[in-house]
Amino acid sequence: MTKHICANFVTDHAVVRYLERELGFDIEAIRQTIAIETAPAVAMGAEALKKGGLRYILKGGKVVTVVLSANRMEQLKALKAGGCDD
Q1: Longest alpha-carbon distance in the chain
Q2: Under 8 Å between Cβ of 53 and 69
Q3: Phi, psi angles (nearest 5°) of residue 3
Q4: CB of 58 within 8 A of CB of 46?
Q5: Domain spans of the chain, in order of start
Q6: The pTM of the whole model exceeds 0.85
Q7: 56, burial (CB in 10 Å: exposed 0-12, middle 13-18, buried 19+)
């Protein structure tokens, strides 16, 4: 079992680069997907967009974070409660 340590010294930038360079995630393709999903809402000056089980948080014409929608969170909780614990 891997020991868990406090990792607050690892920046989000480092995590993104690890995903990209070690795990092969195409960060620019992900950025384009988010842009395509949110461009109309950003253009309208919306503060948030709920789509596909996600909630995109928009501020100042930018997508600042993506979280699970409340409905999706409840679905995941229900699945976990009915599943087995490892």
Answers
A1: 49
A2: yes
A3: -75, 135
A4: yes
A5: 12-82
A6: no
A7: buried
Q: Which of 59, 62, 78, 81 is nearest to 70 (CA)?
A: 78
Burial class (CB in 10 A: 0-12, 13-18, 19+), 8: exposed
Nearest to 15 by CA among 27, 33, 29, 31: 27
User: Among all chains, which residue has been given the structure tokens 């690892």?
Assistant: 10
Residue with tokens 């000056």: 45
DSSP assignment letter at 10: S
Express each pLDDT in 2-38 by its tens digit: 788 889 999 999 999 999 999 999 999 999 999 999 9
